[in-house]
Every structure is written in structure tokens, then in C-alpha cells.
Specification:
By secondary structure, the chain is of the alpha/beta class. The chain has helices at about 15-20, 30-35, 40-45, 60-70, 155-165, 185-205, 235-245, 265-270, 290-300, 315-325, 360-365, 380-385, 395-405, 430, 435-450, 455-475, 480-490; strands at about 5-10, 25-30, 50-55, 80-85, 95-100, 100-105, 110, 125-130, 130-135, 150-155, 170-180, 215, 220-230, 250-260, 280, 305, 310-315, 335-340, 345, 375-380, 410-420.
Length: about 500
């Protein structure tokens, strides 16, 4: 089965089931499906990228359901436990919360990734912090002494975290605090259920639905995407590049070409395409980051795809990627697989270049794992995360992806529809030596803004690693200015 996101809730009454059904998101009640044959389950779920599972109440049932989820949805990447919880601190009543840790009565405590794999409504506040205790039996009235270290209580979260975390499945948690565990908790819970369902509908509508739809035109289906192509010289590449976009089985709504003050005459190469493209010309050469940023700012579509002028796409590239986002609408960014060509010969990427999917920030610290020519990204992400850094002469994409992957999951369309041409002299990787110096700059920027101690530790470790490699290289070349710079950095970091 192709399900990648499973949402669990203890009770059906907590969920906007009408909304889920209307949006073709299957809702499975665990105790009804636990012993059903896989074939029947497949018929019920189909190719749904998102499934909601009602676990039932209590840690034992919740844990059994977690094992069942893993067995019947082997492709699952993200598990989000969502619903209601009690507040041991009355100050959280009526709020959505994500604790930083969950604990069970047997003493285990598990750290929680407070990010969510889907977008959260801007107008709904979500408190991040505190600890949640999962218990077998609720207590109403006077609370036990050993509950004092906790701010929230439920009956399911810890049991699920204990199953999914060791398997490497991203476990996430968001709860609405319906009651304060006092004598009136049951009535508080019932009163709050309507609000829970209403606000969950808003949350799901924001994060689980692809609101932009394709436009049907007489010739072919058009997808709501602007393709941005920066070009500097490369007249001999741009024709194949543009033709590959025009050959798409699902055409983009807009193609923007940004000519970054080319020294070559591009007019003749672009002339056959002028009626199909929007051409922006820079008066002076400003670099690829500036060109991409101009395209982003001018784009009229809600989604963007980039294509470097020396690369090209197979005809089904955009169609495959758009279909992926329809199946997995919680992704704000994805990329396709690539075929690499060097000096006209196909080469196989190294294993460490394998494109990952999901929360890839830690993996992205070492090297850039997202290719601009393969990306499809929601335009609104740039308003939140910023544009390409125009001060960086290279590794501008590494810098941007670090910012985005810190907060968002990345999808992967497992095809080979992007053809990357390499080995020619005007590539940035050929133009600049010691590329890690640009990555160190990006890492230092990230460190300056990072306030989470675990992420800071990873950033510092990678800065030290890359700075040491650079320092050793500069020592061999006896570049005293750079030696002093990186020795000082390693002392101060």
C-alpha cells in the first residue's frame, strides 16, 4: 500500500468524519479491521496517501493498533496522533499543544519531534513544550503525587511512540486540551468535542488538501505551476531545455526565462519560444540566485518548478510530480529522480547522493540532497522561509534547503525524469574551488538563528567537520589568510 501518512485518534467522536469522507480520506476503526484480510483492506483504502485510524481507548489497545498499522501500511513515513487530552495545568484549557516528550506509567520517556508533516493554520495557536503522561486509567479530582512533573495526560500517545520511534517512523503529536482532570472533566470533555471537530476540520483543510486544481484546456491538461529558468549565455543548451518544458504531457501555466545579462546573443535561440515564455532581462549580471528570485517574485502560479538552463526534463516530469502531490497533498515541496550525464555519457550517482524523503535536514547538513531542476515547491513557502541568498556565489541552494528542511518534509517522486548535464566549464561547481566555504557560511547563518539545543549541536558538529577539512586544504596550499580565518572559527565555535 502507498499510504505515507497515518493519523490516529482514540475516538471517532473527536474527528470531523464527514469532512474526511468528503475528501476521500479513509477512516478505519481498528477493532473492526484488525483481523480483516489484507485484500479487503486494500479495496477499502485503495491508493490513499493518507489514512485515519481510530485506535480505541487505552495504552494496550493503542499499542496493538500501532503494530497493526506498521504491518498493513509498510510504506508509512509519518504517524500523527491527534485528538484530545487532559490539562494538568488549567492554563492550557482550550489550546492545541505539542509536548516535547511523552512518558508512560512504566517510567519510559520519549522525546517528540514538535514539527508536523502538514501545514498548520496560521490563525490557530499551537503551544509547544511540556511533557505528556499516558495512563491506563484516568484520575478525576485529586491528582497523584507522581503526576506533578507533567502538564498533560492522555491514554494513548506514549504507547504509540514506543512502537514507531524505534522503527524510524516519524512520530508526531498534537492534542486539544479539553479538560483539567477535575471532577467535572467528563462534562468538560463532552462540551469541548464540538470545538475539537470544528478546528480539526480547519487543520485538515489547511494541511491535507491540495486546493489548487488543474485547468482543462483544449490541447492538454495544464497544471498550476510556473517554471523558472535562469540563463547566462548557454545559447547552445537553452533550446533543448525549453523544448523539454513545452513537451510536457501536462503543461505549466507559465514559463519564465530570466536572462542574466548574457554576453552571448540569446535572441536567436529564444526566438522560436517567445510567444510561449515570459522573458526577463537583467541589465547587469547578478547571479543565479538573483535570477531565480526574480522569477519567484514574478510568478503568477501557486506552485513553482525550477529548471537550470543546461538540464532538461522527460515529458512526464510535471505530470508525475503533480500526481504525487494529489496523492500526498501534505507535502509543500518534492523532487523527482535524476539521470546524470557527464560529457555525453550517463553516469551513476554515488550511494551518498541517493535522494531521501521525509525529514531530511540532518542528512542535508553534509551535502545538498535537493536538485533545483527537480523541485516542485509551493510559492507561499518563500514568503515564510525567505528567497535564495544572493550574497552566496555558490551553494545558494544548499542554504535554502537547510532553511526549508528544518521545518518541512520533502517528498520524492521515484522516477528518472530530470536529466542533469554536467562536466562543462561554466558550472558553478567547476568555477569555484573549496565549495565547503560557502556551506560553512550557510551553516553559520543557520546556527545564528537556531535556538533548539539538539539542532545547534548538529550544526556545530558539521561546521567543525567542514572547517577542519578546509583548514587542512589551506595548510597544504599555505594560504595563511584562510588558515588564520578557519583556525579562529574552530576556536570560537
Amino acid at each position: 500500500m502507498t499510504t505515507k501518512l497515518v493519523i490516529t485518534a482514540a475516538l471517532k467522536a473527536e474527528l470531523p468524519t464527514d469532512w474526511l469522507r468528503a475528501n476521500q480520506i479513509p477512516v478505519l476503526v481498528y477493532n473492526k479491521w484488525a483481523n480483516v484480510a489484507p485484500k479487503a483492506l486494500q479495496e477499502e483504502v485503495g491508493d490513499a496517501g493518507i489514512v485515519v485510524v481510530i485506535t480505541g481507548v487505552g495504552p494496550l489497545r493503542s499499542q496493538a493498533c500501532a503494530h497493526w498499522i506498521k504491518s498493513v501500511f509498510p510504506a508509512v513515513l509519518y504517524l500523527v496522533n491527534i485528538g484530545s487530552a487532559g490539562g494538568l495545568d488549567k492554563g492550557f484549557l482550550g489550546q492545541w499543544v505539542t509536548p516535547k516528550a511523552v512518558a508512560s506509567e512504566n517510567g519510559t520517556c520519549i522525546q517528540i519531534d514538535v514539527r508536523l508533516p502538514f501545514a498548520w493554520p496560521v490563525h490557530l495557536k499551537r503551544h509547544i513544550g511540556g511533557k505528556l503522561l499516558s495512563v491506563a486509567q484516568p484520575v478525576f479530582g485529586a491528582l497523584p503525587e507522581d503526576w506533578k512533573p507533567y502538564q498533560f495526560v492522555d491514554m494513548e500517545a506514549a504507547a504509540q511512540a514506543e512502537v514507531f520511534k524505534p522503527l524510524g517512523i516519524a512520530f508526531h503529536l498534537v492534542k486539544y486540551i479539553t479538560d483539567d482532570s477535575s471532577q467535572t472533566a467528563k462534562q468538560q470533555f463532552k462540551t469541548a468535542l464540538k470545538t475539537v471537530r470544528s478546528e480539526l476540520e480547519q487543520i485538515f483543510n489547511t494541511g491535507l488538501v491540495l486546493t489548487e486544481t488543474s485547468v482543462i484546456q483544449p490541447e492538454k491538461k495544464t497544471v498550476p505551476i510556473t517554471v523558472v529558468i535562469p540563463v547566462y549565455n548557454r545559447a547552445h543548451y537553452i533550446e533543448a531545455c525549453l523544448q523539454s518544458v513545452l513537451n510536457q504531457t501536462q503543461a505549466p501555466q507559465e514559463i519564465i526565462v530570466v536572462d542574466d545579462a548574457s554576453e552571448e546573443h540569446l535572441e536567436s535561440a529564444l526566438k522560436p519560444f517567445r510567444e510561449r515564455i515570459t522573458l526577463i532581462k537583467n541589465e547587469i549580471n547578478q547571479g543565479v540566485s538573483s535570477s531565480r528570485n526574480l522569477g519567484i517574485q514574478q510568478a503568477k502560479s501557486p506552485w513553482l518548478a525550477f529548471l537550470d538552463s543546461d538540464d532538461h526534463w522527460h515529458p512526464e516530469k510535471l505530470a508525475n510530480q503533480w500526481a504525487f502531490h494529489q496523492s500526498y497533498p501534505f507535502y509543500q515541496i518534492s523532487q523527482n529522480g535524476e539521470m546524470w550525464i557527464r560529457h555525453g555519457i550517463r553516469v551513476n550517482p554515488k550511494h551518498y547522493h541517493t535522494k531521501p524523503e521525509g525529514w531530511i535536514w540532518s542528512l542535508s547538513l553534509q551535502r545538498c540532497l535537493i536538485s533545483p531542476s527537480a523541485v516542485m515547491i509551493k510559492k507561499s513557502l518563500f514568503a515564510q522561509m525567505g528567497l535564495f541568498d544572493e550574497s552566496l556565489r555558490a551553494c545558494e541552494d544548499y542554504d535554502l534547503w537547510l532553511r526549508i528542511t528544518r521545518e518541512y518534509v520533502v517528498g520524492l517522486v521515484d522516477d528518472l525524469t530530470v536529466v542533469k548535464q554536467g562536466g562543462h566549464e561554466d558550472q558553478l561547481s567547476m568555477r569555484y574551488s573549496a565549495m565547503d566555504r560557502f556551506r560553512v557560511h550557510a551553516l553559520l547563518k543557520a546556527l545564528e538563528k537556531e535556538d533548539d539545543s539538539e539542532y545547534r549541536t548538529e550544526l556545530i558538529a558539521m561546521i567543525r567537520k567542514k572547517a577542519t577539512i578546509l583548514l587542512n586544504g589551506y595548510r597544504k596550499r599555505q594560504n595563511h589568510q584562510e588558515i588564520e580565518k578557519y583556525e579562529r572559527l574552530l576556536v570560537n565555535i
